Every structure is written in C-alpha cells, then in structure tokens.
Amino acid sequence: MANVLDRVNSPADLKVLTPSELTQLADEIRTEMVNTVTKTGGHLASSLGTVELAIALHRVFDSPRDKTIWDVGHQCYAHKMLTGRRERFETLRQHRGLSGFPDTAESPHDAFSTGHASTSVSAALGIAMARDLAGDDYHVAAIIGDGALTGGMALEGLNQAGHLGAKIIVILNDNAMAISPSVGAVSRTLHRLTLDPRYYRAKEGAGRVIKRFPWGGAAWGSMNRLKSGIKEMLIPTQLWETLGFKYVGPVDGHNIADIEDALSRARAYSPGPVFIHIVTTKGKGYEPAEDDCIKFHGISGKYHIGNGNLSYSEVFGRTLLRLFREDERLVAITAAMMEGTCLNIVAEEFPGRVFDVGICEQHAVTFAAGLASQGYIPITAVYSTFLQRAFDQVLHDVCMQNLPVIFAIDRAGIVGEDGKTHQGTFDLSYLGCIPNLVICAPRDENEMGHLLYTAVKAGCPMAIRYPRGDSLGVPRDEHLEELPIGKGELLIPGDDLAIIAIGSAVIPSVEAARILREKGIDCAVVDARFAKPLDADLILEVASRTKRAVTVEENVLAGGFGSAVLSLLSHNVEVNLLRLGIPDEFVEHGPQELLRANYGLDAKGIAHRILSSFPELSHISPPVRTK
Ligand SMILES: Cc1ncc(C[n+]2csc(CCOP(=O)(O)OP(=O)(O)O)c2C)c(N)n1
Question: How far apart are the CA of 246 and the centre of ligand 1, in A?
C-alpha cells in the first residue's frame, strides 16, 4: 500500500485524503514516531495520544492563519510532522535539530512557544483579543491536557474567556493522566462522567435520534439539550458552562470523523467560547506505552548513555526516605512530578505524608508554608525551571515568615534535550535576592545527603540545587552530618589563582586545576557549597592571597553566584575576577555534555578560559618532572 505520510507536506495535503487514507496516515505517523523517539528520546506516550486530534485540527482549520496552541507542547509531534517538519523529524531534540516543543522560531504553524504547563488558554485568549481588535476573523484553539488543566493559570484564562465571551475554542485532551494519574476534584468529576457506562448508553441513544436530522444549528441545539440532560444526571455542576463556555463532549479522541464534527461545529459557533472535551488514551497504538504510560511519558532514547550510577533524584529520594523514618514532622510535596523527583520512593512507605498537588507550583509552595507554620518540615521537590513560577510564593509566603520549608531543586543547571523551556539556569539568580533563604548546591551525591540533613535541622528556609542526571559514583557516608551553614571547603590549596566553584561546577573545576597544574599553574580550588550566605572568610582569604579568582557556576551570570562573589570582593580586596557561567541567553537543546563544552563549563573549557584570560600565567614554566 502506498505510503500516505509521504504525500503530506503541509496541512493542505490532508484535506484531500479519504477516511481510509486518514486511518492509514495515523498508523504511519505512530510508526515513525515510535521509531524516532525510541532513538532520540522524548515525550512518546503523550504524542501518541494526539495523532487523530492533530490530523482533525489540520483538516478543519487553516493553519497558520488559524492558530493552534499546544499546552506544554510535549504532545505536538504529529502536529510537527503534518506541518512540513517530517523530513527533519529524526533530528528531534538533537542539537540544532527540531525542538521537542512548539517554537515560533521553528515554524509559522507553531503559533506560540510552550514548554511549561497551563499557559495555552491565556495565550489563546490574548491572540483572540488581538484578532478582534484588529478586526480579523481567524480561529484560535488551545489544546490542553487534563494534567495542565490542574494549573491555576488555566482556570484564570478560562474565567476571563467566559467573562469576555471571547470566540476561542478550548480542547481538553483528557487521558486521565498528567505524568502520573491526574489529581484534584476537577479531574475526578471529569472521569466520573467519562467512565460512567450510563453516559455512553444514553449518548448513543441521543446520537441515534440526532442522526435523523440534517446537520445544522437546530440539530446541534437539540443534541446538546439531550446530552446536557444526560450530563446533568451524572455530574452535579456544569463547570464549563458556569464559566461561560459552550460544552461539547465527551468525544472519542481517536475517531477522526467525530473530532472533526465537534471542531467544525465549534468553529461555526459564534456567540462565544467553546469547550470541547475529547477523551484519548495516552500511549495509543504502542502497547508498551499504553501499558506503562508513566514510564513512556518521557523516555531517554537509545542515544542517551548514562554512567550507571544512581541519579541525583534517586539519591535525594532514598536519603529522604531515611530521614522520614527518623522524623515524623517531615512531609513532602510535588507538583505532578512524583517519579521525576523520586518522591515516589518516599510515598510508597509514607503515602499520607507525601502530597501530589497537581501542576501547581505556586500552590505547592504556599501549601508548604501552611504546613511549616504548624510545625511540620515540608520538602518541596521541584525542578528548577518550574519553581520560576512560584517566585512570589517563595518570597512572600515562605521567606518573609522565615518558615522552614526545604526546596529540593532538581534539574538545576543545563538539562539537555528538553531545551530552552526547561533549562535550570536561573534559580541562583531568582532566589539569591530573597532574604532569609539559605541556598546551597552539593558537589557530589555524598555532599547532597549531608546538605539535605543540614536543611532538615536548619529551622529556616533552605534551597538545595542539584543537577539532572547520574551522580558521580563517589562513596556515600553512612552517617549524615550537619554541615555548618555558610561554610565552604578549600579542596586544593594554590597560590597563582583561586577557582571558586559551586555545585556541579566543582568537580570540573578540580579537573581544570589538574590540567593547569600540568602547565605549572598552581590553582587553589574552593567548593563554595553555599551561594547564600557566602563563606566570606574563606573566599576573601584565598582571593586576597592569589589576587586572581575565577567563579564557576551552571547558572546565568546575571545575578548568580559569581555576581555575589564579585560584590563581596569589590568591597574588600583588589582581585582580578573572571566569572564563568551562562551568558545572557536562553540555552538551546542538545546533550548536556555538549552544551557544557559549548559554554566552556567543562574542565577543558574552564582551563582554556583561565589561560586566555590570565595570559601572564602562561609564562610560568611547567614543573620540572623528575624521572
Ligand atoms: C509548570 C510545569 N510544571 C511541570 C511540568 C512538567 N510536565 C510536563 S508534561 C506534564 C503532564 C501534563 O499532563 P497533561 O497536560 O494531562 O498531558 P498528557 O501528557 O497527559 O497528554 C508535566 C507535569 C511542566 N511542563 N510545566
């Protein structure tokens, strides 16, 4: 049978396909997606679930004039393949290849760049208002998952859309899952309806009646009246209609004709916003992903080579489990990242003390503050990039009251293939300005255990940032110790120059010092350990002796660790200071090691930058080797 996907170079090519060709196309997209993503890594299960939706959207709407906004955007692979990017699909998430998320810089069919959850309704509404102000008439649709719908921002957008009576279409892609099962009262209500066999029996009856009518406004009205009666029986409140939306659904999200029907009617409906509820299966069509959609939500792919050690997240989860056994004041919170943060390790034994709050980082932080205000010690485990959302909650609700909330900040620094929406390169800057907050970063997994223990004992807000990926494989001490807050460690003494590094930058700095020593340059290396408060005594002592200092961090230079050291030195001693870190830009996608090398943050890069920035050091003669 001739390949259909080969004939689809743009959405226009979809419009001439027959129903059987469309079914074949969906199969071909899935096959290509599985073949590619098992190599490149990526969000396989989510994207497998939206193949029919993407086909239907691009048949009914006229992209890029009509705009589709994919919430989070991790489920957009079929959309990418159908909008002229199939040839490059095998470069997905590779350096300089296709992004794993919609990106306006990549294609005019990506109407809005996404990556963080729950933004689509607000963006769609803004675009729709811009359209109305300009007197234009294109269509705007937001596609949002039931997980992303748990984020407060989505509800804020729906609330305003209903208030404005704006003409937008919100499509709920309901697969009952975020990464793990979706949480919350809204999800529970949705699933009560879609899982209730009475609804489908009654809906079939309604369908039979309605088939006697020609399709048109009146028929749709009668159908909806019938269905709302049924829904009314089964769900207590019509949430979406209360918000001012016309509700359509549930629609079988794997039936292209059904989705097209719903979309065409929503497109034709003019008085205001429409909410289409489609039901899909996460991982659809690929058995391993359907069977274990948590594992296949995001996979690493064959190109990924780990070092076989525990990941930092696993070390965190296992250490926290030990601490939970010893202190019943400990509680933990995740915003829908139970597996990613490894809090599941703790939740298995202490389900009542671990909370998944949904994709709600802001709520997670203030919820933690509430718990802390009553004597509990909450550990909020959150990725660096997602904590950006909760800046005010960290500042106003936790730190202003000096509450002992611990922020376990996972995926800090360069994260790799997820790219610019997910890099954890800002936390030292956005947290560094907050009073009362202690900020630290371990150089390896052993120090991480001690710092977590220190945080539990600290009695104040404390953030521990650690990188994505496998730990270094150093031995871990059995006994956990409290480390003095604000004290670093001189790892290597030296007189020519001091490298002052933090977190994941420490070990590459030690290696860089070794490279420089081969050239006769005597580098001191300091593990600063704390970005706030800084170990002023140690830094001033080393820097005033060497007169040359280099800070190294996996964070943007603006407002980061190096900036704090610069402020300290500028006031106290005259030192020629070089700061290494991420320049003022968003870091694109690619393997972590490659990106670190590109930014000069691996050992060779650090040594090279030191040699080129302190040319006088090159004249030092290498040590004479004795045989
Ligand atoms: C603000 C924010 N927090 C966390 C995440 C991580 N994340 C990516 S996808 C996802 C689950 C999304 O669930 P849903 O919207 O239902 O989409 P599905 O994958 O089930 O299709 C989460 C928590 C994120 N992208 N943004």
Answer: 25
For every residue of 341-399, DSSP letters joined together read: TTTHHHHHH-GGGEEE--S-HHHHHHHHHHHHHTT-EEEEEEEHHHHGGGHHIIIIIII
pTM above 0.90, yes or no: yes
Mean pLDDT of 522-540: 98
Query: How confident is the model over 311-328, as pLDDT tens digits?
Result: 999 999 999 999 999 999
Distance 55 CA to ligand 1 centre (A): 22
Contacts of 562 (CB under 8 A, 6+ apart): 551, 552, 553, 577, 579, 580, 581
**Of these residues, 389, 443, 465, 532, which one is catalytic?**
389
Mean pLDDT of the region 545-550 = 97
Reply yes or no on whether 325 is catalytic. Answer: no
Residue 79 lies in a domain: yes
514 and 404, same structural domain? no
Inside any domain, residue 299: no
The model's confidence at residue 622, banded by pLDDT at 50, 70 and 90, is low
Per-residue pLDDT for 214 more than 50? no
pLDDT at residue 562 tops 90? yes
Q: Is residue 216 very low, low, confident or very high in pLDDT (cuts 50, 70, 90)?
A: very low
Known catalytic membership, residue 361: yes
- What's the number of domains the chain is made of? 3
139 CA to middle of ligand 1, Å?
Answer: 25
Q: Compute CA 546 distance to the chain's CA centroid, rounded to the nearest angstrom.
A: 41
Q: Looking at ligand 1, which atom is closest to the CA of residue 117? A: 26
* Tokens matching residue 92: 């997905």
Model confidence pLDDT, tens digit, residues 45-63: 999 999 999 999 999 999 9
CATH code for the domain of 392:
3.40.50.970
- In angstroms, the CA 472 to CA 504 distance is 10
Ligand 1 pocket test target in 79, 179, 180 with most atoms within 8 Å of CB: 179
Contact in structure between 556 and 426 (CB atoms under 8 Å): yes
> 209, 33, 61, 206: which is closest to 138 by C-alpha?
61
Q: Is 282 a catalytic residue?
A: yes
Is there a contact between 360 and 150 (Cβ–Cβ < 8 Å)? yes
Q: Which atom of ligand 1 is nearest to the CA of 148?
A: 15
Q: Which is the closest atom of ligand 1 to the Cα of 359? A: 3
165 Rama sector, left if φ>0, alpha if ψ -120 to 50, beta otherwise: left
Q: Which residue has its alpha carbon closest to ligand 1 atom 25?
A: 116
Are 31 and 102 contained in the same domain?
yes
Nearest-atom number in ligand 1 for the CA of 182 is 16
Atom 15 (ligand 1) nearest CA: 145
- Residue spans of beta strands (DSSP E) within 370-515: 377-383, 406-410, 438-440, 462-465, 489-492, 497-501
What is the model's pLDDT at position 626? 55
- H-run or E-run covering 139: none
Percent of the chain residues past pLDDT 90, beyond the cut: 84
For residue 225, what pLDDT band results from cuts at 50, 70 and 90?
low
Segments forming the whole domain that contains residue 35 = 5-10+19-291
| Token pair 């209609």: residue | 241
CA 211, 217, 223, 227 dihedral sign is positive
**Is residue 64 predicted with pLDDT exceeding 90?**
yes
Phi, psi torsion values for 335, nearest 5 degrees = -100, 75
